[in-house]
């Protein structure tokens, strides 16, 4: 499958294809420690480090060539301020959804709106049969997003990882 990505919009958001140049724009927002409560990674160490990661992802394909990795920086249509980063990884006919909404935009419905728009875009561009969200079982906000999107609970991955000194379980 040939990787394809483009910019698009939803009611309140503009989705720009994530590029190296976005790192300076979102760096400080990515440094908010609360974003990493349920993630194994830590805040970026520098704008350059973040830019390097974004640059690597511009290839759209994993090193082994088996995954298509798509990502967007979502911006508020009115202010043009970054609201979050939204990603989908396509593996065969499955699409794994990931989202990070920056703290100033929490609890305003942006994750649901962005995920719906992403699903619509991917459904038109790729032969995906199933969309999947994996999240820490303690992450109530992410669980609510999945519920509002109509996702079905499939299973729990017990002992998914060791996270910040605790064993983490994940909902799929």
Q: How many DSSP E strands?
A: 9
Strand line-up across the major sheet: 1-2-3-4-5-6
The averaged pLDDT comes out at 89
What's the helical proportion of residues?
A: 25-40%
Low-confidence runs? none
Total helical segments: 4
Structure characterization notes:
With 172 residues, the chain is an alpha+beta fold. It has 4 helices and 9 strands, in the order E-E-H-H-E-E-E-H-E-E-H-E-E. The strands form 2 sheets. Strands 1-2-3-4-5-6 form a 6-stranded mixed β-sheet, covered by helices on one side. It is globular and about 35 Å long.
Features:
alpha+beta; 6-stranded mixed beta sheet; 3-stranded antiparallel beta sheet
Question: Nutshell version of this structure?
Answer:
By secondary structure, the chain is an alpha+beta fold. Helices cover 26% and strands 32% of the residues. It has helices at residues 23-30, 47-57, 110-125, 140-148; strands at 8-9, 13-17, 67-76, 82-91, 94-101, 130-133, 135-136, 156-163, 166-171.
Give the SSE layout.
Layout: E1 8-9, E2 13-17, H1 23-30, H2 47-57, E3 67-76, E4 82-91, E5 94-101, H3 110-125, E6 130-133, E7 135-136, H4 140-148, E8 156-163, E9 166-171
Parallel strand pairs: 5-6
Antiparallel strand pairs: 1-2, 2-3, 3-4, 4-5, 7-9, 8-9
């Amino acid at each position: 499958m040939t990787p394809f990505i483009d910019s698009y919009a939803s009611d309140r958001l503009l989705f720009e294809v994530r590029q190296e140049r976005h790192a300076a724009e979102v760096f400080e927002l990515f440094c908010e420690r609360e974003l990493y409560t349920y993630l194994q990674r830590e805040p970026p160490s520098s704008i350059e480090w973040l830019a390097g990661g974004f640059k690597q992802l511009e290839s759209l394909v994993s090193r082994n060539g088996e995954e298509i990795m798509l990502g967007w920086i979502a911006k508020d249509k009115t202010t043009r301020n970054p609201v979050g980063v939204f990603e989908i990884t396509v593996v065969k006919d499955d699409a794994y959804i990931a989202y990070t909404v920056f703290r100033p935009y929490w609890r305003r419905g942006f994750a649901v709106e962005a995920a719906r728009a992403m699903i619509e875009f991917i459904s038109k561009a790729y032969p995906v049969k199933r969309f999947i969200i994996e999240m820490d079982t303690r992450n109530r906000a992410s669980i609510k997003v999945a519920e509002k999107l109509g996702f079905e609970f499939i299973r729990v991955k017990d002992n998914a990882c060791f996270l910040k000194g605790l064993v983490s379980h994940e909902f799929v």
